[in-house]
Amino acid sequence: MGASGEQLGVLKLSDAIRKAQSLGLDLVEVAPTANPPVCKIVDFGKFRYDISKQEKEKKTSGTKLKEIKFRVNIDDHDYRTKLRHGEAFLDKGNKVRVQLQFRGREMAHQEFGMQLMYKVRDDLNGMSQVEMEPKIAGRNITMTLSPLPAARRKRRFSVADLRQVIVIVDVYPELDFLQLCP
Questions:
Q1: 142 near 168, Cβ under 8 Å?
Q2: pTM for this one?
Q3: Does residue 8 contact residue 19 with C-beta atoms inside 8 Å?
Q4: Is 178 a residue whose pLDDT tops 60?
Q5: CA distance 27 to 19
Q6: Can you name the residues that pair with 26 across neighbouring β-strands?
Q7: Of 69, 141, 160, 181, most Cβ neighbours within 10 A?
Q8: HEC string of the chain?
Q9: Which residues, including other chains, have CB under 8 Å from residue 17's CB and lie 6 or more apart?
Q10: What are phi and psi of 123, to 5 degrees?
Q11: Which of 168, 147, 171, 174 is nearest to 182 (CA)?
Q12: What confidence tens digit (pLDDT) does each residue in 88-109 have?
């Protein structure tokens, strides 16, 4: 193959080396197992750089695990804020660990914690799928959510909240928009 990607056909080794030297480039064997072996006329330093860059991209494709912590008696506004953060994490392709922590006498009513976890799961089902169902471990309930494929993700909380603010501003134009934003 030539420097710009065009095929030069089958050449003798000496002809290929001479052609590469005349262009001021190197002859690099790309597919040694092919019959005949495939070589490419390129700058060898750039070729190595491109290969190392491709390998780095393969390594960094892993997902991170983000965590959202709840308490049993969480206020509605705080709940929606945490769900917005969870949606943002899932939208970036990260997994989300949802953790609910009990304190003191809250341990007597673990069913309220499970109800909250199921509510979180249902509210984020447009963005995620459950990887690990809610489990009670000591004073915590933990659940792991993994993101849906990008084409199937549907955000619920950030867009809906913004629509509510716009409706309020349309009805009450004297209100300050920045005070209404969550």
A1: no
A2: 0.54
A3: yes
A4: no
A5: 9
A6: 42
A7: 141
A8: CCCCCCCCCCCCHHHHHHHHHHHCCEEEEEECCCCCCEEEEECHHHHHHHHHHHHHHHHCCCCCEEEEEEECCCCHHHHHHHHHHHHHHHHCCCEEEEEEECCHHHHHHHHHHHHHHHHHHHHCCCCEEEEEEEEEECCEEEEEEEECCHHHCCCCHHHHHHHHHHHHHHHCCCCCHHHHCC
A9: 27
A10: -70, -30
A11: 168
A12: 888 888 899 999 999 988 888 8
Q: Determine which of 4-8, 53-57, 140-144 has the lowest per-residue pLDDT on average.
A: 4-8
pLDDT of residue 98: 93
Give the orientation angle of helix 110-123 with respect to helix 76-91, to 10 degrees: 50
Q: What was the pLDDT predicted at 30?
A: 81
Q: Which residue in this structure is represented by tokens 């590469």?
A: 20
**Per-residue pLDDT tens over the stretch 27-85:** 888 888 888 888 888 888 888 888 888 887 776 556 788 999 999 988 988 999 999 99
What is the per-residue burial (b if ≥16 Cβ within 10 Å, else e) of 134-164?
A: beeeeeebbbbbbbbeeeeeeebbeeebeee
Pairing verdict, β 38-42 and 65-71: unpaired
List the domains of the chain with CATH numbers: 13-59 (3.10.20.80), 65-171 (3.30.110.10)
For the chain, what percent of residues have pLDDT higher than 90? 17
